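ASSEMBLY PREDICTION REQUEST
Request ID: AP-0331
Submitted by: J.K., bench scientist
Number of chains: six
Total residues: 822
Priority: normal
Notes: Please return the full assembly, not individual chains.
Input sequences:
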Amino acid sequence: MIYITRRERFNAAHRLFRKDYTDEENLKVFGKCSNPNWHGHNYVLYVTVKGEINPETGFLMNLSDLSRIIRERIVEKVDHKNINLEVDFMAGKYASTEILAESIWHQIADDIENHGARLHCVRLQESENNYVEYFGE
Amino acid sequence: MIYITRRERFNAAHRLFRKDYTDEENLKVFGKCSNPNWHGHNYVLYVTVKGEINPETGFLMNLSDLSRIIRERIVEKVDHKNINLEVDFMAGKYASTEILAESIWHQIADDIENHGARLHCVRLQESENNYVEYFGE
Amino acid sequence: MIYITRRERFNAAHRLFRKDYTDEENLKVFGKCSNPNWHGHNYVLYVTVKGEINPETGFLMNLSDLSRIIRERIVEKVDHKNINLEVDFMAGKYASTEILAESIWHQIADDIENHGARLHCVRLQESENNYVEYFGE
Amino acid sequence: MIYITRRERFNAAHRLFRKDYTDEENLKVFGKCSNPNWHGHNYVLYVTVKGEINPETGFLMNLSDLSRIIRERIVEKVDHKNINLEVDFMAGKYASTEILAESIWHQIADDIENHGARLHCVRLQESENNYVEYFGE
Amino acid sequence: MIYITRRERFNAAHRLFRKDYTDEENLKVFGKCSNPNWHGHNYVLYVTVKGEINPETGFLMNLSDLSRIIRERIVEKVDHKNINLEVDFMAGKYASTEILAESIWHQIADDIENHGARLHCVRLQESENNYVEYFGE
Amino acid sequence: MIYITRRERFNAAHRLFRKDYTDEENLKVFGKCSNPNWHGHNYVLYVTVKGEINPETGFLMNLSDLSRIIRERIVEKVDHKNINLEVDFMAGKYASTEILAESIWHQIADDIENHGARLHCVRLQESENNYVEYFGE
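STATUS: Completed
Returned structure:
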């Protein structure tokens, strides 16, 4: 069993808030992340897959396939976008890093299995001081 | 003559566009940075000051003063904000990294002189792949 | 189950040595880390907590609470301090990175549980070339 | 149980290819990594060991021993070398990051056990965008 | 006057040697960098351009143009290549970082002028411990 | 004219204070950096030299010579040491980053000239948020 991690990056705007809260209530719970005029981040995404080394190639999975899956299914949908308003797989959800990481998992897990590996971890870094990890369960 | 650099960080949303352009024209000139729903960055700001070492303290300038000036005059105004809509010293200007760096210079230069040093460089990093420097002239 | 990691930093002096050893014996076992005049590091501390996402907020745990716990219980006690001489929760212990990481765990685990998450890992980086991890068992 | 990670670095040339493939077939499967004239990387190697803290020293294992094992058994054999042509423990194997990581494990595991710790993970980073991890099974 | 820096990366193999030296002489002058079987690096290239901000766009120069120039004239020619054997603009030259940086300058300076900016600095990083800068004179 | 930068690192303890101040006065001027029990840092030192490329070697200066000069004249004297108490070239001086950078310049400038290059800049980084540069005048 071997593990490979691929890093991809995207820049996006978002806001943390509940529609049923007033601006004051949102400020109290979500702090400055609730700014109604949005703020944004340079997100760094690490996707780890696992499986057996293919004896034909010495690869677990071709990294160019893994990179293409992440770019097509995630980066092209979120890069230079507003996560709350424009990302189909985040529709109706909170735009927290936790839920974004979990949603990225479900967006790519099947396609990775179709390429002979299994998704192990989605790590999403929002700033140099915090990141979220989701292992699928 | 000695040079000291202080790093501070902020997260913000912005958009590159001209009001007199259509969305298509903005897309052609500014690319995905013109998204009308905004996008954002983790900006990293490096402020370099220069001057003589104070023989009383061994300091060019107290770093806690430099950090306070940057935080009061810049970070508190841009962090978790929309640069196009909410930042007083960017009103009526394009929200490009070039103009933001230049505007940060004018926002802090005098206050640094009042503390016995001279502003040498404002470096503003928008992503790991690009940054802007302004030396005041 | 989701995992969130928060990074905090502190600078401190320390020394590795046994009181019942001579300076020569300490030098043999602990190398230059046993210097009786101390040396120091920029420590980087990563605290990982785990739990369920709160459906009310989209958060596992408010990051500002996690940051406050780490700063109040750890950073304020060790930052710009001498780990051997001044840190209450290290009294009578060796100031190795291993024991410091383990001690940080016991210093914050309960308070994190009181905020609805569980402590998963304390990672303490002493230099760019080495770090220690403790998972509580 | 405590975990310690040591980082070491080396620069090397390599090529991904199968001898029984034509250059065109190698290009199709391995892309530009199959260049017959070689290319190279700054590899970053992280070795994680685990075990109990020694109550005599406060150490899991003396880091200078761990560093010496990695340098003698790995770095001196691969640094500024051609992985396909010159590295004894890679003879007859593909020079993929996966197989290199796995081979590094078998090269150092026993020696680490002889120093009172157990090898937990070999992480080998080929570029800022990808790394491989092997846990021994 | 404003300065913008763009970062691009490439991986390549090279060797430092003189044809008129024996292997022993090359080893004495160039150390392990003279290995006849090659070694390699993850090179990081920073290109800094300078000029006036264009009042129409708020840009010094469109970063996508700068990135395209660097990729077309440099990265496509050196990435996953052997610098001594395969790079047209290095033919007949030593493959030292100094000469590579200088050669990159002459490869891109004119094209940058054609886009309204002036080349200010080529910085080429060969490892985390060393880099070269060339300012064109 | 070409510029080369070499990075070296050291860990040390220090304290900012004036002997003629009380502890309270020192605390007021130097903050927590005045702790009488010391604190410490992982210092990162960048030394930049300049000159002409030697046509015999393609080098400005052999990097192994530059590294050796820095290690013999600086790192061996400050690494795992107390800057205030044990470093000969800092005797009788404040242990501020400014003065340490300036003193490092005078410690290595002549030896670099003896190897055919000229010292251009000493950059000394005390933490990820601040560094000092000295250019010799």
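REVIEWER COMMENTS: The CA atoms of residues 76 and 94 of chain B lie 20 Å apart.
SIGN-OFF: pending second reviewer
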